[in-house]
């Protein structure tokens, strides 16, 4: 069976993508950090689809940890075909407010970790597809989550660089979600209120992200693309 690697796979968006891939017959290498109980539950749900699943715990802010994961996974799985970089933080600090710790953590987790995972994937697996989870903010200039935006814009550029450099062996694409699920700790009416600013006046749902993932897996001539799943919000 083919294997998919999903970072941030224990909860929320990452969890849904990992489960979806399991339903499609992928064995899953699930990367997580602090979601101990949630990762156990997610892995159980994945195995219930009849596929193998192994969890790999580690702090992706640490470069050594990030660059070691692919090697570890390849000792357990021999048909790796997909890497989904979904783990990220999302800290609300504008440029002036940005704490040094936020900046360093954000760049390490949201940019350097996917960079190192991609590089190791290229050096060892050298086939299949990489999908980087971006954000529709990459197309806009909204300073409220400054370090986050910088990290995602850079990750989009990295997606394109790698697509050009590696296209013959690995396709590299991005998904840029908009309003899909509320941020952790968001109010009950968060989606409803925020949807007023989306051209469709609706919010998306996790299924919309899964459709995008399916499209990127199925259409073998799509490379270096960013799919905006945002109701047009990135154009406002
Ligand atoms: N939610 C949305 O509507 C939305 C909109 C636009 C873009 N996105 C993007 O979609 C992706 C998933 O979003 P989400 O809302 O599901 O994210 P989330 O709820 O904030 O979850 C963050 C994920 O990152 C992992 N993570 C955090 N710190 C880590 C660390 N130091 N080392 C390793 N992993 C770490 C977490 O793993 P643990 O829990 O195991 O620590 C968790 O799985 C992100 O890239 C986000 O930017 C989401």
How does this structure look, described?
The protein has 236 residues and is α/β, with parallel strands linked by helices. It has a single domain (3-235), classed as Rossmann fold. Helices cover 43% and strands 17% of the residues. Strands 3-2-1-4-5-6-7 form a seven-stranded parallel sheet, with helices on both faces. It is globular and about 45 Å long. The model has no long low-confidence stretch (mean pLDDT 98). The chain binds NADP nicotinamide-adenine-dinucleotide phosphate. NADP nicotinamide-adenine-dinucleotide phosphate (NAP) binds next to helix 1.
Concise account of the structure shown:
With 236 residues, the chain is α/β, with parallel strands linked by helices. It has 7 helices and 7 strands. The chain has a single domain (3-235), classed as Rossmann fold (3-Layer(aba) Sandwich).
Supply the key terms.
alpha/beta; 7-stranded parallel sheet; binds NADP nicotinamide-adenine-dinucleotide phosphate; 7 helices; 43% helix; single chain; Rossmann fold
CA radius of gyration is 17 Å
CATH class assignment: Alpha Beta
Order of helices and strands: EHEHEHEHEHEHHE
Q: Provide the list of bound ligands, each named once.
A: NADP nicotinamide-adenine-dinucleotide phosphate
Number of beta-strand segments: 7
Low-confidence stretches: none
The biggest sheet amounts to: 7 strands, parallel
**What's the overall geometry?**
globular
Label the structural class.
alpha/beta
Under CATH, the topology can be stated as: Rossmann fold
CATH architecture descriptor name: 3-Layer(aba) Sandwich
The percent range for helix content is: 40-55%
Superfamily at the CATH H level?
Answer: NAD(P)-binding Rossmann-like Domain
Strand order of the largest sheet: 3-2-1-4-5-6-7
Summed up, the helix count is 7
The chain-level mean pLDDT equals 98
Distance between the termini: 43 Å
Oligomer: single chain
Q: What fraction of residues sit in β-strands?
A: 15-25%
- Number of self-contained structural domains: 1
């Amino acid at each position: 069976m083919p294997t998919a690697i999903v970072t941030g796979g224990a909860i929320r968006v990452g969890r849904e993508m990992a489960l979806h891939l399991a339903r499609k017959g992928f064995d899953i290498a699930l990367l997580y950090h602090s979601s101990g109980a949630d990762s156990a539950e997610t892995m159980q749900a994945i195995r219930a689809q009849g596929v193998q699943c192994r969890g790999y715990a580690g702090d992706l802010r640490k470069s050594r940890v990030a660059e070691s994961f692919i090697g570890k996974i390849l000792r357990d799985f021999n048909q790796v075909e997909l890497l989904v970089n979904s783990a990220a933080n999302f800290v609300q600090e504008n440029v002036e407010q940005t704490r040094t710790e936020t900046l360093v953590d954000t760049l390490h987790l949201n940019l350097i970790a996917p960079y190192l995972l991609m590089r190791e994937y290229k050096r060892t697996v050298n086939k299949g597809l990489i999908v980087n989870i971006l954000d529709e903010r990459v197309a806009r200039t909204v300073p409220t989550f400054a370090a986050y935006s910088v990290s995602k814009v850079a990750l989009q550029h990295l997606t394109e660089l790698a697509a050009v450099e590696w296209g013959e062996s690995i396709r590299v694409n991005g998904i840029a979600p908009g309003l899909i699920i509320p941020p952790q700790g968001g109010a009950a009416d968060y989606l409803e209120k925020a949807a007023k600013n989306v051209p469709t006046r609706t919010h998306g749902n996790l299924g919309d992200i899964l459709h995008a993932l399916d499209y990127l897996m199925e259409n073998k001539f799509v490379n270096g693309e960013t799919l905006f799943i945002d109701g047009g919000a990135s154009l406002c």
